[in-house]
Amino acid sequence: MPSAPPASPPPARAVLRAERRRLREAIRAKRSLLKGRRAFERADARRVFQESAARDTAVRAHTAVRERAANERQRTEQLVAGRLRALDDDRQNSEARELQLLRSAYIDAALRRAPLNVKELNGLGAGLINDLAVRGVRTAADFTHTSRGTAPNGKGGEVIWIHLAGGAKVRVNGIGEHRAKALVQWRQSHLRRAEERAPKRITAADRRRVEELAARRRAELTAMSAAAGVTADQACAEADRHRAQTLARLADAARGADAEARARRARYDALAEELLLLEAELDALDAAHGGLGARLRRTGSGARRTDPLAPIPRQRARSAPHDGTTARTAPGITPPGDPWAPAPASAPAPAPASVPGPAPTSAPASAPGSPAAGPPPGKLWLVPVVFFLGSALTGTPELPGAPLWITLALRLGHLVVGGSVLGIWLHRRRRFRDEGTAPVMPGGAKWALALWLLAAVLTMTRYD
Question: Higher confidence at residue 304 or residue 115?
């Protein structure tokens, strides 16, 4: 009877150590690269938000420009309509109003034909007349009166202000009270002369002239309304063009940034898949050729974290397609609670080094040393934390008979224990918020709280 073939000899320890070292170094390298994914996801979310805000800003600016143009157009049309109604009412008024209009036009024309000159203005030389012309006072129709008021900068006492026909007022150095009085008297003399020579009755020719003036004024108002419409249309067209250019520029930038983000996210997904395969290979090697180090990694307190995507913030779930099929998960993203799920079959598996012995098996469904996952820790954990931190910060209870180093050590212990438990609690709660599940509070936290509470009570009873 032929004998069974001899079993393959176990691999040498040096080969196993070298293979484990290679896998651990590769796992550390992948995890180091995956640490940047959280910052990348946050930066990408911030970029998307900023792009949306920029688009909203462009749309709001476009809407504001169009509303402003429409309001300006409406205001001008209402103003023109009111003036046209007033012009129609003026045409239906009595001859006295028409006569007043003719007299006003005649007086204004007479005053404009009376320029400032040295011969008629006593005390005003050619220099002052030139200064008045620079300020806008060239004829008797350019100003109405003078007044006394404070200087522009509030210093120098009171000065003489010349009120222009348009409503503004100017000041000319060298014109005091006496010269201003002479300037006003000169204007009053021309005004009286123009009023005496103005027409006293209305004639047919004057009536035709008034109608021509009214027709000219109506044409001016109509042109003003048409110009307001053209200006509003141009402003709206410019706003539309600017909005289209801005949105196109933002869309181009968003497409480029989205493509870069997809490429970078794909690289992170590939790293996550490679990390899962490397961990599965290391676990298979440990299961086939166990040892003290392998048992410590699987069951000890320092069991390695097997979820390569733990630092990744939870992304918003995709909506299911309209055809009723299940929403597809992004490659390399492991569902919460199943950190040992195998990578997709399409992912390229790295070629492991040839190690004598049984072939590597698939990764187990759950690691023996992995912390249990579940809901976030309750808020009852905050009761001892608040007690310890409050006692450390307020210095209560006081121990008058205890040495100074005992008091300081007790406060420091309160801070360390309370702060450590609070940090673990916050970490678990934040992980539940990001991933939908979180490890339970470790048993060491309960023992630390209980033992330090017992030590604090014994110390207080000893020195109280």
Answer: 115
- pLDDT value of residue 11: 65
| Cα–Cα distance measured from residue 319 to residue 54, given in angstroms and rounded to the nearest whole number | 26
Residue 145 has φ and ψ, to the nearest 5°, of -165, 180
Helix (H, G, I), strand (E, B) or coil at 164: strand
Global model pTM greater than 0.85 = no
Contact assessment for residue 333 and residue 322, using Cβ atoms and an 8 Å cutoff: no
Of 55, 42, 52, the closest CA to residue 261 belongs to 42
Query: Is the CB of residue 306 less than 8 Å from the CB of residue 383?
Result: no
Dihedral pair phi/psi, residue 295, rounded to 5°: -65, -40
More confident residue, 161 or 312: 161
**Which residues lie closer than 8 Å to 368 by C-beta, 6 or more apart?**
298, 299, 303
What is the sign of the dihedral through the CA atoms of 213, 198, 104 and 133? positive
Run of H or E including 385: helix 382-394
- CA distances, 212 to each of 201, 206, 224, 226 (Å): 18, 10, 18, 21
User: CB neighbours (10 Å) of residue 92?
Assistant: 7
* C-alpha to C-alpha distances, 48 to 37, 257, 301, 409, 435, nearest whole angstrom: 16, 9, 41, 50, 21
C-alpha angle 207-166-226 in degrees, rounded to nearest 5 = 65
Q: Virtual CA dihedral for 427, 429, 435, 439, nearest 10 degrees?
A: 70
177/157 Cα distance (integer angstroms): 13
Burial of residue 428 (CB within 10 Å: 0-12, 13-18, 19+) is buried
Q: Which residue has better confidence, 298 or 439?
A: 439
Average pLDDT over residues 74-101: 77
| Closest CA relative to residue 449, chosen from 397, 399, 380, 402 | 380
Cα dihedral 201→205→207→213 (10° resolution): -120
Distance CA 368, CA 366 (A): 6
Sequence-distant (≥ 6) Cβ neighbours of residue 144 within 8 angstroms = 163, 164, 165
Strand partners, 163: 145, 169
Kindly tell me the number of DSSP H helices and DSSP E strands found in the chain: 10, 5
**Interatomic CA distance for residues 277 and 294, integer angstroms:** 17
Q: Residue 353, SS3?
A: coil
